[in-house]
Amino acid sequence: MMSSDVSTVYHDAMWFFWLIVALVCIALEFHSAAFVAVFMAVSSIVTLILSILGVPMWAQFLVWVVLSAVLVLTLRPYALRRFRHGHHAHELVEPTRSTMTGRVGVVEVEVGDASEPGRVKVEGESWKAVTTAAHSLKAGTRIVVDKVQSTTLWVLPENHADTHEDHED
């Protein structure tokens, strides 16, 4: 295969590359709610269209980088205000109840407050954890998941959870 053939194959496949980048960015945004990857995904979609139109690869990358930066710098502050601080704001990073709520586990590494997280094992999986209990939870303590924030579990000692509130949905 000649080098021009290789270049053509790469150029023709760039739309697929930008589609994958957009999907990965969307998945990352769902995980982080940081309002960065969503704008990179939008830039990827614009760049995908440019690749279909035959724009050179170097220009596609340049457009993606510049457009991502412009969108993050201009629209992210608005998105943060709208979804985190507005009148009817949706606090996307507050701990919430989930399917993990009420699950029982064991402390692996001592768990403290948000400034001193530890690790717990729930249903065979190890999770980063914090507690709102009055004291830290020592390794081996049985816990109940109270809330979830991204990939961090908010836990209470199992005996404290009985008096806390009903975790059944």
Question: What tags apply to this protein structure?
Answer:
169 residues; alpha+beta; OB fold (Dihydrolipoamide Acetyltransferase, E2P); five-stranded mixed barrel; 4 helices
Set out the fold topology.
Elements: H1 3-32, H2 37-52, H3 57-85, E1 104-109, E2 118-122, E3 125-131, E4 142-149, E5 152-157, H4 158-164
Parallel strand pairs: 3-5
Antiparallel strand pairs: 1-2, 1-4, 2-3, 4-5
Helix pairs in contact: 1-2, 2-3
Q: What is the C-alpha radius of gyration, as a whole number of Å?
A: 23 Å
End-to-end separation in angstroms reads: 62 Å
Main sheet overview: 5 strands, mixed, barrel
Bin the strand percentage. Answer: 15-25%
How would you portray this structure in words?
This protein has 169 residues and is α+β, with helices and mostly antiparallel strands. The chain folds into 2 domains: 3-85, no CATH class; 104-164, OB fold (Dihydrolipoamide Acetyltransferase, E2P), CATH 2.40.50. Helix content is 49%, strand content 19%. It contains 4 helices and 5 strands; from the N terminus they run αααβββββα. The chain has helices at 3-32, 37-52, 57-85, 158-164, and strands spanning 104-109, 118-122, 125-131, 142-149, 152-157. It has a 5-stranded mixed barrel with strand order 1-2-3-5-4. β1 (104-109) and β2 form a beta hairpin. α1 (3-32) packs antiparallel against α2 and α2 (37-52) runs antiparallel to α3.
Summarize the structure.
The protein is of the alpha+beta class and 169 residues long. Helix content is 49%, strand content 19%.
